[in-house]
């Protein structure tokens, strides 16, 4: 129990009901790590009087990982699952009809390129961009970018998250083929991040980012496994807020990963459907990576 001091371990044990079943943790540990949870169990609220609280906003696996971290400084992601054949891809989603007078595209997206036939192409905004990025711009993304692609991979690998040495564990296992489903692995880190964000546990947030970053770095994105990433992106953007440019966050990490793997993701029907359904944060971050690549 290297992440807890003696006074915390001498405190009373508090009961949490998660997914209908009890889980237990020393109240002193809660006080050490989370102000909102501490108010719940050690303040004037009814839960404190009963010595029991029901959490409706967290799943059992995530809360068990929080308990692991509270006592040891680290948590353990689930194992990957064998998935063969991979889940069937989503059907091609129809593109929304373009407005009669579409808004002016951002200047950066007006840059043109030459195709093999010598015709100039440009990505328009927003619905015209969707059509062309999923058609003509696919050809653009397939073109070799030499050292620039190596730099993008290197910059992603070099992302760093400041966590104490106590939290270091074995490096994540690299996947070995398209039969290995990593969606539960990815989502476990994202759910820990969301839980830690809600209950103001910053060290756990940073550890979740570090663990997810290491897992994505070791992960080979086979076309058959795009669904694993889509599930991660969909959950993460639905359960987090935009913290702005330059802020260390789950969205920032995933934005850089989408930029790294855009050539594979842009061909996937499920990813296209995600962008069409969410013409907001996900699309905006993806476009920012497209613009960066064009530049």
Tell me what you see in this structure.
With 295 residues, the protein is mainly alpha-helical. The protein has 15 helices and 7 strands. The chain has helices spanning 6-9, 27-33, 35-42, 46-50, 60-72, 127-133, 136-142, 147-157, 183-198, 202-218, 226-238, 250-260, 262-265, 269-277, 281-294, and strands at 13-18, 21-26, 52-55, 81-82, 113-114, 120-121, 180-181. The strands form 3 sheets. Strands 2-1-3 form a 3-stranded mixed β-sheet. Helix 2 (27-33) packs antiparallel against helix 3 (35-42), helix 9 (183-198) runs antiparallel to helix 10 (202-218) and helix 12 (250-260) packs across helix 15.
Low-confidence stretches: 98-103, 105-125
Distance between the termini: 50 Å
Would you tell me the structural class of the helices and strands?
Answer: mainly alpha
Helix count equals 15
Shape: elongated
The strand order across the widest sheet is 2-1-3
- Rg over alpha carbons: 22 Å
Give the helix proportion (percent range).
40-55%
Run of helices and strands: HEEHHHEHEEEHHHEHHHHHHH
Oligomer category:
single chain
Average pLDDT, rounded to a whole number, is 81
How many strands, what sense, and barrel or not for the largest sheet? 3 strands, mixed
């Amino acid at each position: 129990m290297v992440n807890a001091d003696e006074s915390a371990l001498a405190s009373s044990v508090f009961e949490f009901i998660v997914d209908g079943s009890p889980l237990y943790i020393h109240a002193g540990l809660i006080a050490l790590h989370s102000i909102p949870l501490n108010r719940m169990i050690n303040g004037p609220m009814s839960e404190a009087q009963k010595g029991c609280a029901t959490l409706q906003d967290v799943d059992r696996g995530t809360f068990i990982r929080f308990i692991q971290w509270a006592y040891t400084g680290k948590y353990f992601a689930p194992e990957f699952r064998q998935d063969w054949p991979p889940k069937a891809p989503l059907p091609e989603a129809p593109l929304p009809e373009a407005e009669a007078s579409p808004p002016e595209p951002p200047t950066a997206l007006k840059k043109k390129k030459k195709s093999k036939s010598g015709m100039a192409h440009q990505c328009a905004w927003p619905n015209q961009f969707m059509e062309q990025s999923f058609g003509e711009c696919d050809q653009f993304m397939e073109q070799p970018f030499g050292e620039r692609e190596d730099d993008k991979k290197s910059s992603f690998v070099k992302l760093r998250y400041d966590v104490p040495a106590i939290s270091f564990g074995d490096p994540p296992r690299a996947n070995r083929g398209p039969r290995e489903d990593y969606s539960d692995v990815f989502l476990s880190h994202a759910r820990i991040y969301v839980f830690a964000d809600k209950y103001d546990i910053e060290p756990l947030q940073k550890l979740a980012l570090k663990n997810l970053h290491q897992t994505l770095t070791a992960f080979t994105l086979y076309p058959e496994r795009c669904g694993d990433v889509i599930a991660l992106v969909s959950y993460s953007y639905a359960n987090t807020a935009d913290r702005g440019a330059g802020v260390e966050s789950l969205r920032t990490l995933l934005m850089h990963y989408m930029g790294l793997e855009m050539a594979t993701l842009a061909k996937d029907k499920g990813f296209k459907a995600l962008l069409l359904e969410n013409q907001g944060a996900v699309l905006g971050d993806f476009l920012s990576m497209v613009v960066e690549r064009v530049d």
